[in-house]
Design the sequence.
């Protein structure tokens, strides 16, 4: 299977590396010094599951060099999806599968606005890894896992084929009964901690220590659940409790990637997290005052980052 991995950061680098290690012809879209390092020396992955090094079939920043893939793994930020989808149009074939793995609740929907729906899958991943230096990915936590499915939750031959491919690449994977619910379960966790983290600029343990800030997180999560239910996503109180179990067990010093982007003055996924809940709340008649407060307080910084 010809595989294109668009974005060779922590997510794309790890999973793309695993697929290349398993012998699949993998093309990687990378940029700058990272691109040059992979071209010259291959991609190095340092992992808690064992280190390895691979040489992809092709690494480039030019899609005109790419042959039509059978699978595209999108590992860019959620706010980059519309632009990347437009870039992908010329290289997709009628049977190409496009699998988004970024955080956010509406990535598949955004892809379907630009690409043929038959090309689009829904997905997410669990993994903590990052680019340690050009040409090197460092995986530091979580058993890497891809969760994926058809957007209508049907069980198709191509889903079975993807399962076999991920198994061969030793990537833990799941095809759930309701992929939208799984997307929202992760979104609930990540959106609850990211905005308040960016606002307070402290790690999760410091936020937990404040009764007030902990209540803010609980209120943020309650609003997310209310919006999900209005969209017929069966997110319930048990999912909220599970999200807070994860929050409560995060090691001291933990920060979310969106929080780090905000703190470093880079464009972030704010619009796709708290901003998305605010916009959906207004469309659906669901009050979201806490998410709106977080969003509006961070929005000037986000606008500044995007103009710079």
Sequence:
């Amino acid at each position: 299977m010809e595989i294109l991995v668009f974005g060779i950061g922590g997510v794309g680098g790890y999973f793309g590396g695993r697929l290349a290690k398993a012998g699949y012809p993998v093309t990687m879209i990378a940029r700058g010094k990272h691109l040059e390092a992979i071209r010259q020396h291959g991609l190095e992955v340092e992992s808690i599951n064992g280190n390895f090094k691979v040489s992809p079939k092709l690494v480039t920043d030019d899609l005109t060099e790419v042959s039509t893939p059978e699978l595209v793994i999108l590992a860019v930020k959620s706010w980059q999806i519309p632009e990347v989808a437009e870039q992908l149009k010329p290289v997709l074939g009628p049977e190409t599968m496009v699998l988004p793995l970024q955080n956010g609740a509406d990535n598949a929907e955004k892809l379907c606005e630009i690409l043929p729906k038959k090309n689009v899958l829904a997905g997410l991943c669990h993994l903590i890894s990052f680019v340690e230096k050009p040409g090197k990915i460092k995986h530091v936590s979580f058993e890497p896992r891809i969760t994926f499915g058809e957007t209508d939750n049907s069980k198709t031959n191509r889903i079975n084929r993807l399962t076999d491919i991920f198994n061969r690449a030793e990537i833990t994977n799941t095809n759930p009964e309701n992929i939208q619910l799984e997307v929202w379960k992760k979104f609930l966790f990540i959106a609850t901690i990211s905005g308040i983290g960016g606002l307070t600029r402290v790690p999760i343990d410091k936020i937990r220590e404040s009764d007030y800030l902990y209540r803010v997180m609980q209120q943020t999560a309650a609003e997310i659940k209310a919006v999900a239910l209005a969209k017929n996503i069966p997110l319930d109180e048990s999912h909220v409790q599970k999200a807070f179990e994860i929050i409560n067990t995060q090691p001291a010093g933990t920060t979310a990637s969106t929080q780090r982007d905000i703190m470093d003055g880079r464009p972030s996924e704010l619009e796709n997290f708290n901003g998305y809940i605010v916009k959906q709340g207004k469309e659906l008649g669901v009050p979201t005052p806490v998410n709106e407060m977080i969003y509006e307080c961070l929005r000037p910084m986000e606008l500044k980052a995007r103009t710079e």
Remarks:
- The chain has two domains: 3-177, 181-307.
- The chain has a mean pLDDT of 96.
- The radius of gyration is 19 Å.
